[in-house]
Each structure stands twice: as structure tokens, then as C-alpha cells.
Specification:
There is one protein chain. With 879 residues, this protein is of the alpha+beta class. The protein has 18 helices and 48 strands. The strands form 14 sheets. Strands 25, 26, 28, 31 and 32 form a five-stranded mixed beta sheet that branches. Strands 40, 41, 43, 46 and 47 form a five-stranded mixed beta sheet that branches. It has a four-stranded mixed beta sheet with strand order 14-9-8-17. Helix 4 packs across helix 5 and helix 11 runs antiparallel to helix 15. The relative contact order is 0.06.
Length: 879
């Protein structure tokens, strides 16, 4: 029995053993051959002409079939199969891709839509022919090297003599074995300009330009090399307070995929939309309708953060050179392409020079042959050799000026001249032809001697002939990063069980705290003086006796926490003010002095640094005389969260009561406007807009005659026609001169913003009405330049003091007529001096950032600090 079990076990072990078979012979090379074939013959373009093999064969076939008329694509595909070893589907798809780039192929029919992603019609229904540009720059059989096709029946070009940086103009994408390529398309005109600059020895810089237009940030493009990144965004504008319009989309997306991503983000609760309307035809138009009460500015940022309205593209420049893959940047691709163009132009000129010299040689021989009647010397010759020798002997006295020796082929051509041509020979015309050829030879030699200038002129001609309508489509802009936590729709409800110490979204029977999102962090404070920041979850234990819960804002310097706590069971009580700007998630922080039994007497969270007044009440004990007094948090320095705080009393507290709500003690926030990214910031980039308190707003005026005020949020978006932006002073009037299209007159008006919560139009609604000048100065001045009227002298320019011209009226008032005379131009002059009334505010303090720590570890802070002096760590300081 035991022997049987051992045999069975041995059989199982034998079955489980792996059998290793060595692959020898041709097997070991098959995969390498396959990989080489895919890299060289299918996926990666050649540097010489910018084509993959299938594209090159399509272009060669189209030249074979070219007669100036359109050919069925099915016919072109069938013809290409004589050169290409793959099926018709791959050829048709490759041809459609070339045609959609609108450069080499003149298309007719439904070739699909790169904006919507719609496919092209079947190849039997659509037609194509070579574009004039392709005929000009792609072909020249005289300088083309040829090879046998895959079956040996035909000749095909090794590389087409493309005299243009076509690879960068069209872009290329392919996945091979072990490597891939992704060369982004660039602008036609910018490539020509860059080639000219390179030939002139100047520096140049290239960034992509996408056929789908949109907006792109090329800060990290890295010349198209591995590791670079391009951020692309859709162009989103606000039609009205409840509608957004997407008019351009990012590269490599379609309207269908974009709408799907928006709907998906809406389903996940990241954004909130009412419905989407797709009106895309020749141009993109996607209307995103928002529910009432949803901020359009916030939604625009949310679309960039959570949908395909912003995409990231990683370029990778890989090309084939000398039958080997080479990773290379777009600047080097352009240099090599331009050098190749110069060499092709040189070869073309050398061939042309040789042809002109041959024509000149034979024309000279023909003239000598006919003018000296040498053809008569062959009348008595009976053999072909005798004829050749007679002509050669007759030419010898007249050929000293020729540039090469006479050959038998030259003499043979002379014998083929017809009698009719000899009889009608005109010596003058023959000489003119020879002189014209000499001029052409001299011109070609001049071009060869000045090859770089000739190449520059060649590129300039291409720009002139084919550059119309090829201006840049993609706007270059530097993007600000969108903080997803600030723009996400908070559609999840947060609850807290204070006694048991739980927070979460599933505690529906407990106290409701507020709305949050699934990407938010939550900050929690407990009665024991502990603090923790944790991710939103269905249910999380923090610690018993929770006293405050809120969504945590990272790097928030404006939210100040006011706190009074007792140190230990019977220790003294302290008061402190602090901000929380950086933490390590899920780590418990002790805000007290760390002694066991500490408890918080009073706590408040103040979003704008408010400092309230509280009443301190002591227990009756011993000989204490003062049992009650008021304490103002405004007198307390804002320090680090780990500071001990200032001593309140060493005696036992009975309770602390709020006596009076406080006002902000923080300095007003300085806000700048960065014109490059069209965004507000607090980092000092761009032009200073002003210093803002909680109630302050920004005034915006547009060229369309719209005025509005907005809260200075960093996420705010601005219209392209914005002409004025500044801190809004409610009592400061706005002065404007506008043209009324209905009455065809100019009017002056001065007004105040009447409704700060909505935008208002202050010029007439006629389509021809337009705003001429607008000023927010106290005493603006304008100059009126009058037009010359027939039969009269031009009136002198008139200066107008707008403050004296018209009093302040309602925003809907028409205003006063500027003049009854014909106006040519209105200019805004320097305003008159005026001292604006000063704004009076309470004493301010400024909050400085805490020391920022890594996500994994935080620097420990000392448990105590001086009671009155500034915190030694310099984390939060009161000025």
C-alpha cells in the first residue's frame, strides 16, 4: 500500500515538472524579423519624406493615376495594392487619414469628420485627387530613387523627394513592437518661418497646432521628446448665467467622447448639469445647460478638472533613419528636413543645369550643321560609317567653342533632322534660342552658387502660394492648475455623532453637518483638544465628544480658530488663536499642552479671521475677588497650532460665554490679475487689482456695454472683450460715451452700478450701437475729433469734461447727446486730478503660512511657547 502511494506521488511530481525545449534554427530569429518589419515597414515614418510605407505607396499610386480629375478612392486603393502587400481596408483607412489632414489630397464626398468622429463613406462613394501643393513639393521622378515592389513586378520609390517638413505638418502616430511614435501636427506657416530662420542661422522654436483648434499649454512640450507633456483644453464661454458653450475641443477628442465624459462626470456627481445640446456641424457647438443656482465659472473649472474638456498628450518623437529607429526632437526633425530640402533643390538644379547644357550643345551643333551646309557632305557616302565620319570631319573646324566633345550619338541626332526643318531654318531664331539657353544656364549656376538664398526664396514662394487660410488655430496659453476640491459639486451629505465620535455620509439618523464631495477632506476637533483631518468616508471614528466638523481647505490662511482650554485636570486655562494650513492626513494632533485630562472650554471657527468678545466666569473659591470679566480675542496673537497660548487664569473656570460677535482682524487680501492665463491670483503675478476684504467686489466692464460686479474668487473666468477691471467702489461713478445705432448719434452718460448681483447693459440694444470710450476715473476727460464735411473746413478738436457735461443718472438712462456735428473719432484723455475719500478700517493683522510638510511626515513642534511673545517657530505671526 505504501509502495503504491509512493509510485502515485512520483507520477504526480513528474507531471508537474516543466519541460524546457530549446528553440534553435530559424525560430530564434522570427520574432526579431517580425519586430523589425513592424517598426520599419508599418508603424514609424521615415525622416526623409515623413511617410510610412503605406502612405508613400498611396501617394505614388495617386501620381500614377493623376490626370487632373477626381478618381474613386476604391480605384486608388486597388491600384495601391500593386505596391502594398496588405489588404484594401488598411490602405483605405490610411488614405482617409491623409485626406482629413487637408494638405496633400483634394477630397470630394463624405470623408468623415474629425470633430464629431464620424467615419468616412465607403471608398466606392468618395473621390480624391492630388492637391496642387502635393504636385509641387512631393514629386520629381528625376531625383527619385526606385526599388522593386514586394512582388518584383513594378518599381516604387524608396523615398519620395518631399521638399517640405511634411512630417511635422501632418504629425504621425504609430505603435510598433517595443516602441511607439507620437509626433504632433504643427502649423504650416510656422514651419516655413522656422525653416527660413534655420537657413538664416537664427534661432527658432516650434510648438504644435491642432486641427481641432482649442487652447493649449506647451510649457512642458520638451521639443516633442520623451517625457514632454502638452495640456489641451476646450474653448468654453458663458452664453448666459445658465448656459455654457463649447466651441472648440481638445486634440484627439471628438464631440461624442467629450459629451460622454461630461455625462459621466454628472452621473458621478462631480458636476451638475441640466442637459447637453449638440449643434455641431461644420463648427463645434455644444451647449451645456446648467440648473439655476449653479455657478458657471465654477462649472467651467469643473469641466476642465473632471471631463475630457482638458486632456494631456505625451509626445514622443521617433523616426526611421538609415533603417534604424531614432528618438529625436521636433527642432532636429525640422533641421534635417530643411537640410534634405536644400540637397533635393541642389540635385534638381544640377539636373536642370545638365539638361540646359545638353540643349545648348545640340542647338549649337544643329546651327553649325545647317548653317555650314555640312549635310551636303554625306550625299556621296554609301556606308553609315562614312556618313558619320563625313559629318564629324565637316564639324571639326567650327566646334572650338563647344563645352564637350562630339559623340556618335550627337552626330546620329543630326542625321535625324528632317529636310523640312532644314529648309525653314532661321539663323536669327536659332541664335536667340541659344542665347536664351545661356541665360538659363547662367541663372541655374547662380542659384547653385547661392543655394541657401535659393532655398529661402523657395520656402517664401510656398508660403505665398499655399499659406492662405493656414493661420494658427490653437491658442497658446499658460494654464493655472484647477484645484478639483474647490470646483467639485458637493452633493453628498455629511453627518456627525458627536457623543460617540463618528463622522460619515451614512449616519443619516445623526446630526447633519453640511454638503461634501467624495474627494473632500474633513477637519474635526474634539472636547479633549484633539484635531484630525481625514478623507470623507461612509463612517469614520475620530474620538468622542466632537465639538467642530467642517470641510478642510488646504493652505487656508483666512480661517482662524479661537480656543480656550484647560491644561490637565486641575491646571490653568489658556487662550490661543491659530490657523491650520498643512497637516498629515489621519494623524491626531493635540492642540493643548499635552497633559492628561485637558478639556476645551470655548471653541469657534472663523472663516475670515473674526475675533469675538467672550465673558470669563470663575468658580467661587477662597479669596478670589474678580469672578467675571470680558476677554477680546482681537488682543491675542495668531500663532502656530502647537503653541501653548496665553494664560487666562490659574483658577478653576465655571464657564465661558459669547458676549459679542467679532469682525475680521486679518489684513485685506491682495489680488492680482495675470493677463497671460486670464486669471486672478494671490501670488503676485500680473497687475495688482486691489486689496479686498470679505464684502469687497470686482467691477468688470466689457466692450459690449455690459457692467457687472463679482466676488473676487480665484476661479473666476473673464470674457475676451473685457476692457476694464478694478476693485469696485460703490460711490464711484462710471462715465461712458457710446454710439446709438438707432438714432445714429453719440451720447454721454454717467451712472452708478445699481444691482451688484447681476450684469447690466448700459448702451442701447440696437445691433449697430457700440461703446466708444468708458472711464472709471472721478474726473475723466475726452477729446472729440470732428469729421470734415463737404464744402466746410474741419472743426477744431473739442475737449469735454465728462463730470461737468452730465450729472450722474440711472444706468438705464439714455444720457445727453455729445454733439450734433459729424464725429470722426473720440479719444480718452488723461483725467483731471482728484483726491478720492479714504476708506477707514479697523486695525489689521496678517497671517503667514505655516511650515509646509510632506504628505507622509510632519515636523514636530514644541509643546510650549512664551505667553505673549511671537511664536519662536515663526509659523503664524501677528503684525
Amino acid at each position: 500500500m505504501i509502495e503504491e502511494d509512493n509510485d502515485a506521488l512520483e507520477n504526480v511530481n513528474n507531471e508537474n515538472q516543466e519541460t524546457i525545449t530549446k528553440v534553435t534554427g530559424m525560430y530564434k530569429d522570427w520574432f526579431l524579423d517580425y519586430a523589425s518589419y513592424v517598426i520599419l515597414e508599418r508603424a514609424v515614418p521615415a525622416i526623409e519624406d515623413g511617410f510610412k510605407p503605406v502612405q508613400r505607396r498611396i501617394m505614388h499610386s495617386m501620381k500614377d493615376l493623376d490626370d487632373g480629375r477626381y478618381n474613386k478612392v476604391a480605384n486608388i486603393v486597388g491600384h495601391t495594392m500593386q505596391y502594398h502587400p496588405h489588404g484594401d481596408a488598411s490602405i483605405a483607412d490610411a488614405m482617409v487619414q491623409i485626406g482629413q489632414k487637408d494638405l496633400l489630397i483634394d477630397t470630394q464626398g463624405n470623408w468623415g469628420n474629425i470633430l464629431t468622429g464620424d467615419r468616412a463613406a465607403a471608398s466606392r462613394y468618395i473621390e480624391a485627387r492630388l492637391s496642387k501643393f502635393a504636385l509641387d513639393v512631393v514629386y520629381n521622378p528625376k531625383i527619385t530613387e526606385w526599388q522593386s515592389s514586394y512582388d518584383g513586378r513594378r518599381k516604387e520609390p524608396i523615398n519620395l523627394p518631399v521638399m517640405f517638413p511634411l512630417l511635422l505638418a501632418q504629425g504621425a502616430e504609430g505603435i510598433a513592437v517595443g516602441l511607439s511614435t507620437k509626433i504632433l501636427p504643427h502649423n504650416f506657416l510656422e514651419l516655413i518661418d522656422a525653416s527660413i530662420k534655420y537657413l538664416q542661422g537664427k534661432r527658432f522654436k516650434l510648438v504644435p497646432d491642432f486641427p481641432t483648434a482649442g487652447i493649449a499649454d506647451f510649457t512642458n512640450y520638451n521639443d516633442g521628446l520623451r517625457g514632454g507633456k502638452v495640456r489641451c483644453r476646450a474653448r468654453i464661454s458663458q452664453l448666459n448665467k445658465n448656459t455654457l458653450a463649447i466651441t472648440e475641443i481638445p486634440f484627439a477628442t471628438t464631440t461624442t467622447s467629450l459629451i460622454d465624459s461630461i455625462l459621466k462626470a454628472n452621473d458621478k456627481g462631480k458636476i451638475k448639469i441640466k442637459r447637453i445640446e449638440d449643434n455641431t456641424a461644420a463648427d463645434v457647438e455644444i451647449l451645456v445647460h446648467l440648473p439655476s443656482g449653479i455657478s458657471p465659472d465654477k462649472t467651467i473649472d469643473a469641466l476642465y478638472a473632471f471631463t475630457s474638456c482638458e486632456t494631456s498628450i505625451s509626445p514622443l518623437g521617433c523616426i526611421i533613419e538609415d533603417n534604424k529607429p531614432l528618438f529625436i526632437g521636433v527642432s532636429e526633425i525640422l533641421r534635417r528636413s530643411t537640410d534634405n530640402t536644400v540637397q533635393l533643390l541642389k540635385s534638381e538644379l544640377e539636373i536642370k543645369l545638365n539638361e540646359f547644357e545638353e540643349q545648348w550643345h545640340f542647338a549649337s551643333l544643329e546651327r553649325i550643321f545647317i548653317e555650314n551646309r555640312i549635310y551636303r557632305d554625306i550625299e556621296e557616302e554609301e556606308t553609315w560609317e562614312g556618313v558619320i565620319n563625313a559629318i564629324d570631319k565637316g564639324l571639326q573646324p567650327h566646334i572650338k567653342h563647344l563645352k564637350r566633345a562630339i559623340t556618335v550619338e550627337d552626330i546620329t541626332r543630326l542625321t535625324e533632322i528632317r529636310i523640312k526643318r532644314i529648309s525653314k531654318f532661321d539663323i536669327d531664331k536659332a541664335q536667340q534660342k541659344i542665347e536664351a539657353l545661356e541665360d538659363q544656364i547662367a541663372e541655374v549656376k547662380h542659384h547653385l552658387a547661392n543655394l541657401i538664398e535659393y532655398a529661402i526664396a523657395y520656402f517664401q514662394r510656398l508660403k505665398k502660394d499655399y499659406g492662405e487660410g493656414r493661420e494658427r488655430k490653437t491658442e497658446i496659453r499658460i494654464f493655472d492648475d484647477v484645484d478639483a476640491s474647490k470646483v467639485v459639486i458637493r452633493n453628498t451629505k455629511l453627518y456627525v455623532n458627536r457623543e460617540e465620535g463618528f463622522i460619515g455620509t451614512s449616519l443619516r439618523k445623526d446630526e447633519y453637518v453640511g454638503d461634501c464631495s467624495d474627494i473632500d477632506d474633513i477637519i474635526v476637533f474634539t472636547k479633549e483638544g484633539k484635531m484630525m483631518v481625514t478623507k470623507v468616508d461612509s463612517k469614520t471614528f475620530i474620538g468622542k465628544n466632537i465639538i467642530h466638523v467642517a470641510v478642510f481647505k488646504k493652505k487656508d490662511k483666512r480661517t482662524i480658530y479661537n480656543m480656550i482650554y484647560r491644561d490637565g485636570k486641575g491646571g490653568p486655562s489658556y487662550i490661543k488663536r491659530f490657523a491650520v494650513t498643512s497637516i498629515t492626513r489621519d494623524r491626531e494632533y493635540d492642540l493643548t499642552n499635552g497633559n492628561k485630562g485637558s478639556t476645551v472650554w470655548y471653541f469657534s471657527a472663523n472663516p475670515n479671521g473674526e475675533a469675538e468678545v467672550v465673558t470669563i466666569m470663575l468658580r467661587q473659591a477662597g479669596s478670589i475677588k474678580k469672578l467675571k470679566w470680558d476677554l477680546d480675542f482681537a488682543d491675542i496673537l495668531i500663532k502656530g497650532r502647537a503653541s501653548k497660548g496665553n494664560l487666562v487664569t490659574k483658577y478653576a473656570l465655571k464657564r465661558v460665554e459669547l458676549k459679542e460677535k467679532g469682525v475680521s482682524t486679518l489684513k485685506p487680501r491682495k489680488i492680482w490679475f495675470d493677463d497671460t492665463v486670464q486669471r486672478l491670483n494671490v501670488d503676485g503675478r500680473g497687475e495688482l487689482v486691489g486689496e479686498f476684504r470679505g464684502e469687497d467686489r470686482i467691477l468688470i466692464i466689457t466692450q459690449a456695454g455690459i457692467v457687472k460686479t463679482i466676488i473676487p474668487e480665484i476661479t473666476a473666468h473673464f470674457d475676451a472683450d473685457m476692457i476694464a477691471m478694478e476693485k469696485w467702489i460703490p460711490k464711484k461713478p462710471i462715465s461712458a460715451i457710446y454710439y446709438d445705432g438707432e438714432k445714429e448719434k453719440y451720447y454721454v452718460k454717467r451712472f452708478l452700478v445699481e444691482n451688484e448681483s447681476k450684469e447690466e447693459v448700459f448702451i442701447s440694444s440696437h445691433p449697430d450701437s457700440q461703446l466708444e470710450i468708458v472711464s472709471t476715473d472721478w474726473k475723466p476727460m475726452a477729446e472729440v475729433v470732428f469729421a470734415k464735411e463737404r464744402g466746410k473746413d474741419r472743426r477744431d478738436n473739442q475737449e469735454v469734461n465728462l463730470e461737468e457735461f452730465i450729472a450722474i443718472k440711472g444706468i438705464s438712462a439714455q444720457g445727453n447727446q455729445l454733439t450734433k456735428f459729424k464725429v470722426n473719432q473720440i479719444n480718452l484723455l488723461e483725467s483731471l486730478p482728484y483726491e478720492a475719500p479714504e476708506e477707514v478700517h479697523a486695525q489689521d493683522v496678517e497671517v503667514v503660512d505655516e511650515e509646509v510638510v510632506s504628505n507622509n511626515e510632519e515636523v514636530d513642534k514644541s509643546d510650549s511657547a512664551p505667553e505673549i511673545d511671537m511664536d519662536d517657530e515663526g509659523q503664524i505671526t501677528l503684525f
